[in-house]
Amino acid sequence: MKRILPIILLCGALTAASDRVSAAASKPAPDITLHNAAGEAIHLSDVRGKVVLVDFWASWCPPCQTSFPALDALYREYRERGVEVLAINVDEKRRDADAFLDRHSHALTVLFDPKGASPLAFGVKGMPSSFLIDREGNIRFTHMGYSGNVDESYRRELAQLLSEH
Known about the structure:
35% of the residues lie in helices and 29% in strands. The protein has five helices and eight strands.
């Protein structure tokens, strides 16, 4: 599995300077289980009933370094409305992720996947990649790469998903 992840990340490096957004055909999100910094197991199904933004990132990825604080700000803005942000770190060495997190205050939930199983389950093709999931647990929007323009896309998509039900 460690050989597959670098290929995925290399492909993403080619598109990392831009942001590609697509409205995904509604499909169920994989019910992944990962651990947070305290070692607690978090299941994606634990947040069903909320609108969820799942973001895959790595400490060495420049667009990820830019998007992380922006996603945290988005979470702080929308958390009272029922939005959860799960930032899934895919660094093979936890200390690299921890060093990054020590430099960036955050309120969003960080999960760790050093083996890279969850990006494969989601079909991640580049870094960073984000998936917006509706209250029913279906992937509705995907983003690959990051640019400052994506923040408005997130706001429109979150508004749409929050208005449903």
